[in-house]
Amino acid sequence: MTIQWVAVATFLYTEIGLILLFCVPFIPPQRVLRRLVTLITQLAKELSNKGVLKTQAENTNKAAQRFMEENEKLKRILKTQGTDEECVLEAENKKLVEDQGKLKTELKKTSDALSKAQSDVMTMKMQSERLSKEYDRLLKEHSELQNRLEKGHKKGL
């Protein structure tokens, strides 16, 4: 039994030694106090942030609930009015398709008329150039004839 008491005594003395070692201040108290103050400050900030986030979450939940209620109301309204509006929309759609067809035919007619007008303009430009050249030629011929006539009158006098 003595071995057991020796083991117990050794364990207790070792424990007392460790406790005394931990009581010796390795870290100065000022440093511990500063760290404690910063931790308390951080805790206070986090608590205030928690309150703000909690109110934001509550407001967001309330808004989402309102939107869901409005969505349900709109769905009910659409179910009651949906059939009437679908008929109106189909009629409008048919009318728009017909108008589109008419506009396409008008566009084709207009584009054909435009291309014809452009070709007529090109033809007139070419004729104008030819007439201008012919006019210049005739003017030159006229001046040559007048010069001959004047020479003939001068010789005759």
TrEMBL record:
Its main location: endoplasmic reticulum. GO terms for cellular component: endoplasmic reticulum membrane. Residues 127-150 have a biased composition (Basic and acidic residues). Residues 1-42 form the BAP29/BAP31 transmembrane domain. The chain crosses the membrane at residues 6-27. Belongs to the BCAP29/BCAP31 family. This is B-cell receptor-associated protein. Keywords: Apoptosis, Coiled coil, Endoplasmic reticulum, ER-Golgi transport, Membrane, Protein transport, Receptor, Transmembrane, Transmembrane helix, Transport. Residues 102-156 form the Bap31/Bap29 cytoplasmic coiled-coil domain. It is a multi-pass membrane protein. It comes from the Eukaryota. GO terms for biological process: apoptotic process; endoplasmic reticulum to Golgi vesicle-mediated transport; intracellular protein transport; protein localization to endoplasmic reticulum exit site. Plays a role in the export of secreted proteins in the ER. It is found in: Endoplasmic reticulum membrane. It comes from Heterocephalus glaber (Naked mole rat). Residues 114-157 are annotated as: Disordered. Pfam families: Bap31, Bap31_Bap29_C.
